[in-house]
Structures are given as C-alpha cells and as structure tokens.
User: Which sequence fits this backbone?
C-alpha cells in the first residue's frame, strides 16, 4: 500500500511525483487523489479488479501532479498495464510525454518477457510519433542492468 504521508511530503518540494509498485487495483487508484491534497492522478495496475487476490500484490504505476500546474495535462489511454502516461502541453511550444514504467524482469532466455518489453518500448515510440511531441521523459524501473550485455532487455534498450 502506498505511503501517502511520504508522497504528501514529496509534494512539499515537487510538482510531479511518479510512483511504481503501488500495489493498488485499478478501482483503488482514487486513493492517491483522496489522500494527497490538490493532486490529480493517472495510473495503471497489474492486478485485475475481478479476480480474488492471492498472495502478495504486484506492479502498478502512477503519475501524480499538482492541480495548479500551468500546463494542459491529459492522461492517455495506453495498452500496457505496466505503464501510465500523461501528455503535458504548454501554450506556445512545449508538448511532452511523461511515462512511468515498471518493466518485466530481464533474463537471458525468456522470450515472452522480451516480447512484452519490446511491445512497451514500441508503444512509447508510437505515441511520441503520433502525438508529435518535443520531449519524452521515461522514468521508473527498466528491470535491466546495462553491464549485463547478454541479457535480452539490455540488448533491446541499447540496440546491440
């Protein structure tokens, strides 16, 4: 469960906070808005609302931002449940995408994880092209280590 007191403290000095592994279902994402004053939220969950949860919950990303930001902010519909995304537009010239991701685990052999990883990367690229943005910021957990050259996700990120 998120530590709302900690997130509230982060907003003392920040206008945007990105959270991963919040362990909330889609139907519970309102708890960010309910517990952190003057914020809006865009989020995703890896847990299905219609299935009884057994064991430890998992995944989930969220982007929280102050309501008073001088941007037009739009939460975008995306395919992957491993990320969330907002588009920020400032009158004039700035159009930016902000992604919060929690990628699948990296291995030397798991092609299904690699396929999901590549699909997430491609969805981010496609959105950037479709929306003709100036800037893309991606934050979160890429679940890879660049020093592990043999691992599949490292190769996907570096293009080698």
Assistant:
């Amino acid at each position: 469960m998120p530590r709302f007191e900690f997130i509230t403290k982060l907003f003392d000095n920040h206008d945007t906070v990105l959270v991963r592994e919040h362990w909330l279902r889609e139907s519970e994402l309102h708890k960010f808005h309910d517990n952190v004053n003057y914020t809006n939220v865009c989020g995703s969950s890896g847990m299905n609302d219609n299935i009884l949860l057994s064991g430890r919950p998992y995944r989930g990303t969220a982007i929280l931002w102050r309501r008073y930001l001088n941007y037009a902010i739009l939460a975008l519909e995306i395919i992957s449940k491993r990320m969330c995304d907002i588009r920020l537009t400032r009158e004039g010239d700035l159009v930016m995408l902000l992604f919060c991701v929690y990628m699948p685990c990296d291995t030397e052999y798991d092609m299904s994880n690699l396929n999901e990883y590549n699909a997430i990367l491609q969805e981010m690229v496609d959105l950037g092209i479709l929306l003709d943005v100036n800037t893309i910021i991606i934050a979160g957990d890429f679940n890879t280590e660049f020093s592990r050259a043999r691992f599949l996700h490292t190769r996907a990120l570096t293009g080698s």
Q: What stands out?
A: The beta strands are 16-20, 39-44, 61-66, 72-75, 83-89, 95-102, 135-141. The chain has one domain: 4-158.
